[in-house]
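Entry:
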Amino acid sequence: MIGANNFIHISDPMLGVTSGQIDIIRKLIGNNKLFFSCDIKANYVKEDLINLMSGAGIIVFSLGIESLNNRALQLVNKNCSAENELRAATIIKGCGRTFVKSYWIIGLPGEDNVSLQYNIDQMYRLLNDNIVDEICNHILVPYPGTDFFNFPKKYDIKINHHNWLRYEGRSYLPVYSLKHLSSKNIYQYFLKSQESELKYYQETYTELSKSLNKINNNENITFAKFKGRLL
């Protein structure tokens, strides 16, 4: 049984690639007391590797899908196609008791109204088709020191201001705009992506949804709180 004291997150996207890591995983085979989550890159996902990892108690996989727009992925040097990301998620979900957290970035260079709406539609579909279990999305932030900040023209990015308090990926309008998307447009798609995920949860967990509808109107129930009660 998973609890607060026997679940460990391994923050290492290279997990399962080196021989040393695989040796450690093999030693954990049959372990039924400790459970793990890890970050993993789609490029390294293979069925035999995921079966090995899940047998060792590694059951939660965080996968950075980012976007299903290949042009955007190429512009940010993702070195992985949308097709490969989806293949990786499908393999992981096909290996027993696994849970896939998918990470998305709203407003990557190369995105437009069509591609962002497609991403939002696919978030719902992937949840509904049991290809991923959770959507973790945020807005691109062109932090100082990154190529997005230092060379914005290269990515058709316009930095709107340097109010550092607003350089955050969820709570404020983006600090930049793109060639085909204003700052406001990008934030609107971010909110729509949250709505898409919430729609899935409400449809899937109907009893919880009903209970939330009965909550006193004065209570501030945020999306994060609603989601937290589900997971």
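Residues 113 and 185 are 8 Å apart (CA to CA).
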